[in-house]
Amino acid sequence: MHAHSESGPYLCRLKIVIQMKSIYSKILILAFMASSLYSYAWGLTGHRVIAEIAENHLSRKARREIKKMMGRERLAYWANWPDFIKSDTTGVWKQASSWHYVNIDPMADFKAFDQNLKAQAGPSLYTQVNTLSSQIKDKNTSEKDRKIALIFLIHIMGDLAQPLHVGRAEDLGGNKINVTYFGEKTNLHSVWDGKLVDSQKYSYTEYATLLDIKSKEEVAQIQSGTLEDWLYDSHKIANKIYAQTPNDSKLSFDYQYKFNDTMERQLLYGGLRLAKVLNELF
Prior knowledge:
Elements: H1 2-36, H2 43-56, H3 60-70, H4 75-78, H5 81-84, H6 110-119, H7 125-137, H8 143-161, E1 178-181, E2 184-187, H9 188-198, H10 204-211, H11 216-223, H12 227-244, E3 249-251, H13 253-281
Helix pairs in contact: 2-8, 2-9, 2-10, 2-13, 7-8, 8-13
């Protein structure tokens, strides 16, 4: 009777533990879903492709100065760090979440786009490219902070080339546009972050080598223009993506065929333009 009387409280405690684990699991799932919005532009491979192409086009001086800051690690090693720290739970990097994108409604022309861009208070991808560049140039910035600024600059210049990071606030850059990709439920932003790139099955070094084949004259043309020009370039492509990918689209080989050239263009342009920014900094 004594043993039987203890089973009641034991079972009760067991049920509470199971319920708490279930609640905790649901909280973790919700937290993950919330943190996934505006996450991981280009994914691991895309950012590394851009960084690798940029490294191939560094001037001798820029290469030398960056080596002093980064050691022997290549740019691609650090290219995804600003996304990795989104998992940090201390709140130290919370303010950096808005640095990865800039929201712009469809604009009729560059003049309207430029005015809207400069009217935004920030911080955003646009403001931070300039802010981080200034920090790197400033001799009073500590070595640690200069390195962090450089790592963020490498990353968000890659974000700039992902068209949906110059997308629309109403759908969080395509995060709220539901699609299927080869039958898998996902969203438009995720397709452009990584799925299109990963579908090609290249390593980042392979992809960088395959894409980085432009002549010096072509490279100079791609690197011409201002930061605002480059953002408008991505913005125009984002508008085409929106127009051709409505909610509930079923995407597969035809979508790859339609947009693969655009995706590869953006990886290449992102790398070459990052190289220009770094060469001008150093």
